[in-house]
Design brief:
about 525 residues; eight-stranded mixed beta sheet; five-stranded parallel beta sheet; binds ligand NA7
């Protein structure tokens, strides 16, 4: 008999809930977590300004009505420390700690055909066996530092935002260089600018950012909201993004221009990316429609940033709004009005090298005391690819995914029996409310395991035909939108050599959930189920 029923890799939102849900089904579970604490991406990304871009009332577990009533979020958008406190509370409240092993990295997982179980090796040399392997490694875990010649010569400290020192960093009186202007760079830049002697932002591509309008969650608002939390959660599960958004329901191109300006201005004032992009039905499918919202945003940038040359450099013009993650910040653009902040355009003068005293571009040298990389992640597949996962006949997952990651419903892939991926490639994952998508996946996986046990099956394995059909659908839906037009991490464009494949399902959280339910109701259609009773 295997040591465990299930090994869970990772203890972020996904791993924490997997431990709870599988244990509640009576399974023997252990989660291995490389970090010294739970939280996954929220454990590692402890840089100043780190904040979720989904509202706290949405970015939280819904599985326990008691939990959602008793926990109070202090702000509209949760900051990283508060998310960690929340997850700690969840682990305490549901007694999850005994089944989570911290400071332990899974290095290898191999399917043993004869025993129909996984052998999971950790970096302390231990090997445990389990019937099921659940990947909860997260979509944004494998961080990347660009290979910059001379970085090892730099005299000052350098940091990647995804490995920020727990004790913090004091930039007082320092000349700091920041590389990267995605969601992370945009969050950390104003925090550095507020304390540093000088901040130099090295920008390769400008990004669109909408205001957060972050604010405390007032007790009366909280009480009123919580009185209908159950109904709200139901609406969220049926919604497109995993967050109920009220749009106009009309295409922007059919709307009188003054009405369009009024609608966007209203949503700009209210803050938040999802309501902004969800204002009209055609913004993410029609380039001409997207041009309207892009122009509105560029006008706001030019309004906020005083220096016209800097404002122009900050105006994105090379990709549709929303096809890269729409950033959110209340003070990023205004930060450029500070005298201690300057912007360097890497398009006209690319990065060249680092030396002891600073950073050189093709045309200039910038003296720096510290360097910060906010240069992103090998997203969606990167963290799993770092583990030596071997399926039937010793086939490597990394090899199977060489042409791009793929999975049936984003959950399972042929050749890897009894392995499930939480928010894997082919699921709505990063283009949805992750907390909700994680719960939906974990519940589906727990249901599938329960079905196998109840019907005497030992294994479930996605069929190649089901995976092919699903990924063809994922691709078809993606290419009916503007998403593939951007060189984004959604499509792997940020990682040199990574195949350009769009692997996130943009057909909507609600329809996706229905499809998963149908598959389950049909006896796990698209999976080959096998085992002792099945053989009879
Ligand atoms: P992103 O969104 O991938 O942003 C990374 C940024 O770093 C982006 O501006 C990149 O420019 C820049 N970058 C990356 N490599 C280089 C090199 N070699 N030289 C110069 N600039 C570079 O990562 P984030 O951490 O900001 O956000 C990831 C997600 O986390 C986010 O979308 C949210 O969902 C949460 P580029 O645009 O590629 O020209």
């Amino acid at each position: 008999m295997a040591d465990l029923d299930a090994v869970v890799i990772g203890a972020g939102f996904a791993g924490i809930y997997a431990v709870h849900a599988l244990r509640s089904s009576g399974l023997r579970v252990r989660a291995f977590e490389a970090g010294g604490g739970i939280g996954g991406t929220w454990f590692w990304n402890r840089y100043p300004g780190a904040r979720c871009d989904v509202e706290s009332k949405d970015y939280s577990f819904s599985f326990s009505p008691e939990l959602e009533q008793e926990w109070s979020w202090s702000e509209r958008y949760p900051a990283q420390p508060e998310i960690l406190r929340y997850l700690g509370h969840v682990a305490d409240r549901f007694g999850l700690w005994p089944d989570i092993q911290l400071n332990t990295r899974v290095t290898r997982a191999a399917w043993r055909e004869d025993a129909a179980e996984w052998a999971v090796t950790t970096d302390d040399g231990a090997v445990v066996s389990a019937r099921f392997l659940i990947s909860a490694v997260g979509c944004l875990s494998a961080y990347q530092v660009p290979s910059l010649p001379g970085l090892d010569q730099f005299a000052g400290p350098w940091y990647h935002t995804a490995r920020w020192p727990a004790e913090g960093v004091d930039f007082t009186a320092k000349r700091v260089g920041l590389i990267g202007t995605g969601s992370t760079g945009i969050q950390i830049a104003p925090e550095i600018a507020a304390v540093a002697e000088q901040l130099t932002v090295f920008q390769r591509t400008p990004n669109f950012a909408v205001p957060n309008r972050n604010r405390p969650w007032e007790p009366e608002d909280e009480r009123a909201f919580k009185s209908r939390y159950r109904q709200y959660r139901k609406e969220a599960r049926e919604s497109f993004l995993g967050v109920p958004i009220t749009g106009t329901g009309r295409p922007v191109l059919d709307e009188p221009p003054e009405e369009v300006q009024r609608t966007f201005a209203e949503r700009w004032r209210a803050g938040g990316g999802m309501p902004f992009l969800g204002a009209y039905t055609d913004l993410l499918t029609d380039q001409a429609a997207n041009d309207v919202i892009a122009e509105f945003m560029r006008d706001r940038i030019k309004e906020i940033v005083h220096d016209p040359a800097t404002a122009e450099l900050l105006c994105p013009r090379t990709f549709p709004v929303g096809s890269k993650r729409l950033c959110q910040s209340d003070d990023y653009y205004a930060m450029y009005n500070r005298p201690n902040v300057r912007l360097v355009d890497l398009r006209s003068t690319p990065l060249h090298s680092v030396s002891a005293g600073g950073l050189s571009t093709a045309t200039a040298f910038y003296e720096l005391d510290a360097l910060v990389f906010a240069t992103g992640f090998d997203a969606i597949s990167g963290a799993l690819a770092q583990i030596d996962v071997r399926g039937a006949s010793g086939v490597a997952l990394a090899g199977r995914w060489a042409a791009g990651p793929r999975a049936y419903l984003g959950l399972a892939t042929p050749g890897f029996p009894n392995m499930f991926i939480v928010t894997g490639p082919g699921s709505p994952s990063v283009l949805s409310n992750m907390a909700l998508s994680i719960e939906q996946h974990v519940e589906w996986i727990a249901g599938c395991i329960g079905y196998l046990d109840a019907h005497g099956y030992a294994t479930a394995e996605a069929t190649a035909a089901a995976e092919d059909a699903w990924m063809a659908h994922v691709t078809e839906v993606a290419y009916s939108t503007l998403f593939p037009k951007a060189d984004s991490w959604y499509i792997g464009a940020n990682i040199p050599g990574k195949p350009r494949v769009f692997t996130t399902y943009v057909g909507g959280v609600g329809p996706y959930g229905e499809k998963c339910d149908q598959v389950a109701a049909a006896g796990y259609e698209g999976f080959a189920l096998d085992g002792p009773l099945a053989a009879k």
